């Protein structure tokens, strides 16, 4: 493991009565802050492929597709009902606890409600595994998988809100406390089921965001999702095969080093002030890094020492285009800047004589398929972004009487050093931090 320069370690120990409640609360977890040097803060932008990602090895890949998602009344109503039901249940639970005739009954009601959330978290784990299995067996479509993952995300967030309320009730109950590790560990477990791509899928389905394309890649028990939205490339990955719940040997001090080894480019370009923090809870450590090109959250399993979950958000303006491949015909120059499966794919259209950008509709389809999907139009700058398919693909542009077709392929996945081979280790928070909070799950 590489040495970590300029690390300022702060061990924060809060009262056991405090639970994990949110980014503005006092932490009951262990936190490490790491400050980058001015030289590191001024690191130059680097090619796309050097930003490593948690992904699924090709030997473990079961399904890989790109799914167009749009507003959908059915899932939208279901998600609204789920949200409303969660709020009602939380309100009912709080009212019952606050109406308890004495403190002993109040304490027992809090414990009982916390146990219900823990049991529901276990059920969500089973639900997520089943949904992935059904998708892998072609029992549900990629669209249906996204809908189910969005529902799981919404319920997990609702359960975490209830956990926060219980933490507050516990802290306001005389002579009573809930183990802070239990509350924080539950938060991290619920965090397993949430992510920025799932959250964006909810926004698309409910009409809060424009229709877009989602990359979906699965193994037997893992899932990787990515999307280009709101001027950003966003991805999330979860691999349960990299977890070892039977032991806990990796300390929070080591987690930063593990992430530094796996994401060297991100780590070396971290922000000069409060660029990194480590939050430990339950049997995992979350390492969040703000760097020149975006934000990374990597989750290190305390048993296996592996990064088992990841989320990244990178503004497109910071994404360095990959290797270009160009096709010229009928006065049009079409270029695809190749990237890895599910990575940020930039498509550029220009006039061949003047090099002026051209606004035209763009379609994309797998080379082996006869079907194509309309991406949209390139706009006044001649550029459109999307997520790359996992296999060879064809891009087609028609502008008036001119047409140009380009065939391209994704590049190799810049996988993590320790996640590039098959592994089978699995068994089946609050933070005081100066790091600015990103979108939930990022």
UniProtKB/TrEMBL annotation:
Domain DUF7094: 214-319
Domain DUF7096: 2-209
Spans annotated as Disordered: 409-442
Keyword Coiled coil included in the entry's annotation: yes
Keyword list, A-Z: Coiled coil
Coiled-coil segments: 142-169
Signal peptide: none
Pfam families in UniProt: DUF7094 (PF23375), DUF7096 (PF23379), Fn3_arc (PF23374)
InterPro entries: DUF7094 (IPR055520), DUF7096 (IPR055522), Fn3_arc (IPR056397)
Keyword Coiled coil: yes
Domain annotation Fibronectin-III type-like: ranges: 324-405
Compositionally biased tracts (Polar residues): 417-434
Protein name, as recorded: Uncharacterized protein
Organism lineage string: Archaea, Methanobacteriati, Methanobacteriota, Stenosarchaea group, Halobacteria
